[in-house]
Write a structure and sequence with these properties.
There is one protein chain. The protein is mostly helical. The protein folds into 2 domains: 92 residues, Helix-hairpin-Helix base-excision DNA repair enzymes (C-terminal) (Endonuclease Iii, domain 2), CATH 1.10.1670.10; 113 residues, Endonuclease III, domain 1. The chain is 62% helix and 0% strand. The chain contains 13 helices and no strands. Helix 1 crosses helix 13. The longest helix has 19 residues. It is globular, with a radius of gyration of 18 Å. Bound molecules: iron/sulfur cluster. The site of iron/sulfur cluster (SF4) has 13 residues, from helix 11. Iron/sulfur cluster binds next to helix 11.
Length: 231
């Protein structure tokens, strides 16, 4: 039996529960009066082509110097920023991306994320995609996790699971995204959808890290009875 995105979500919810992504240090932002959504954006840029554990080291460095907010990233010298985020890899490229995004936010939205996110979702997405080094996965992670707006994030893990199960979709980014959104929008209210997209993406990542690895561990996988790949 082929799974739908809704059925996939139900199974993974039973298996992993609510994962409450995106990981972020609320206490730091409460103490410093900074916007926690900016940490999500920084994380989404830093996680490109690297493991999350490396991003955590970079975020810890930024926090240890009280730099994890819009004004401080805007004011810090790029060489210093590069050093702080070095553990996340491609640190020169990523420092420039962080600087560019932050300047854009300051120049066009007074550095205020409410101003940035309080717009039509397609407009926000197009704008993000026009910025240096922001591709679909990063843009959609920012929109969903920082903006709490309704867009499903597709990553390499999602593509792998779609292909292996298989789910009834081609594997281009946009087709997978539309496939998930179309099905899930029929099952949940528009109010609940951002939470569902948030959880399902997180659940897929955990599934891929724990079971559906490059060399999958199918015997323990909660999807094994639905999956063609293991036959
Ligand atoms: S059964 Fe195996 S291939 Fe299929 S989703 Fe699970 S781990 Fe991946």
């Amino acid at each position: 039996m082929k799974l739908t995105p809704h059925a996939l979500h139900e199974i993974l919810l039973k298996e992993f529960g609510n994962l409450n992504w995106w990981p972020m240090d609320k206490g730091y932002h409460e103490k410093n009066g900074s916007d926690p959504r900016y940490e999500i954006i920084v994380g989404a840029i830093l996680t490109q082509n690297t493991a999350w554990s490396n991003v955590e080291k970079a975020l810890t460095n930024l926090k240890s110097q009280n730099k994890l907010d819009i004004n401080n990233i805007s004011n810090i010298k790029i060489e210093n920023l590069q050093e702080l985020i070095r553990p996340s890899g491609f640190f020169k490229q990523k420092a420039k991306r962080l600087k560019d995004f932050t300047e854009y936010l300051k120049n066009n939205y007074q550095g205020n994320l409410d101003n940035f996110f309080d717009r039509d979702i397609n407009t926000i997405r197009e704008e993000l995609l026009s910025l240096n080094g922001i591709g679909p996965e990063t843009a959609d992670s920012i929109i969903l996790y920082a903006g709490n707006l309704s867009i499903f994030v597709v990553d390499a893990y999602t593509k792998r699971i779609c292909k292996r199960l298989p789910l009834d979709t081609n594997i281009s980014y946009e087709e997978i995204q539309q496939f998930f959104q179309k099905d899930l929008c029929k099952k949940y209210s528009s109010q609940d959808i951002p939470k569902v997209y948030n959880e399902l993406h997180a659940q897929i990542v955990i599934l891929a890290k724990n079971y559906c690895k490059k060399n999958p561990e199918c015997d323990k996988c909660p999807l094994k009875q639905y999956c063609s790949y293991r036959d």
